[in-house]
Amino acid sequence: MYIEVNGVRLFYKVSGKGPAIILVHGNGEDHRIFHETAKLLEQDYTVYALDSRGHGKSSGGDVLGYDIMADDVAELIRDLKLERPVYCGFSDGGIIGLLAAIKYAGIFSKLVICGANTDPRGIKGFWLLLFTLMEKLHSDPKTSMMLKEPHITGEQLSRISIPVLVLAGEKDLIRENHTRYLASKIKNSYLRILPGERHGTYIVHSRKLYHFIKKFLKK
After folding, report:
1. I need a labelling partner for 79 at 20 to 30 A (CA). Which of 20, 121, 133, 156 fits?
2. How many whole angstroms separate alpha carbon 108 and alpha carbon 106?
3. pLDDT band at residue 122 using 50, 70 and 90 as cut-offs
4. CB 200, CB 33: distance < 8 Å
5. CA–CA separation, 124 and 110 (whole Å)
């Protein structure tokens, strides 16, 4: 399905029945990475799997930025009249969720943040160098965005009062001390560093994420 928000056309897939949960992918991906998770969640929830602007079947690749992507999510929630949905975001999707929760207090009931960073310096040095080289070779606005944004402060994170599950892999491309810092600044957060997991191994076409979400939502 499609919806017009902020001058762009966003694609989203709806499945299941029950309370709403929004799934948002990472940089350069689309909603299909959550196929296995959505199939399990739709037994108890109405799942909205979104393609962010400039990704997948959505338009808007010429104007990218985490702030405006957070605005996209907020407008989608308003237009679809969703009542305080749960939000789960991976990587860039996690950043978008944090910004939306900060900017639009009360818009979500709970947050699940996977492999997100609050500053480009939260990315490990090897990966930061690799992304810098990729951007120089291909001038991809998605990569450029990732190298320049976000810049979320501890004070901003402290404004989030809803329950937040913060997940990251033990071998994530995000620095572990950065993930721990992020979680420490959110008052009502639950941190899980997952043994043996990389940035997306427990998310992309995996059933593992479902079990973490399900346990968190039962609390």
Report:
1. 156
2. 6
3. very high
4. yes
5. 28
Give the chain's largest Cα–Cα span: 46
Pair type for strands 8-16 and 46-50: antiparallel
In the sheet that 20-24 helps form, which strands lie side by side, from edge to edge?
A: 2-5, 8-16, 46-50, 20-24, 86-90, 110-114, 164-169, 189-194
Spatial separation of the C-alpha atoms in residues 95 and 118, rounded to whole Å: 7
Mean predicted confidence (pLDDT) in 6-12: 97
* Single-letter amino acid code for the residue at 182: L
Which pTM value belongs to this model?
0.97
Task: Give CA–CA dist 50/34, Å, rounded.
Answer: 10
Quote the CA–CA distance of 51 and 124 in Å, as a whole number.
Answer: 26
H/E segment holding residue 165? strand 164-169
Helices then strands, counting H and E runs in the chain, come out as 8, 8
Tens digits of per-residue pLDDT, 164-182? 999 999 999 999 999 999 9
- The pLDDT, as a whole number, for residue 29 is 98
Alpha-carbon distance of 6 to 208, in angstroms, equals 34
Give the helix/strand (H/E) hosting 110: strand 110-114
CA atoms lying within 13 Å on the CB side of residue 98: 30
At residue 28, the pLDDT reads 95
Quick check: helix, strand or coil at residue 49? Answer: strand
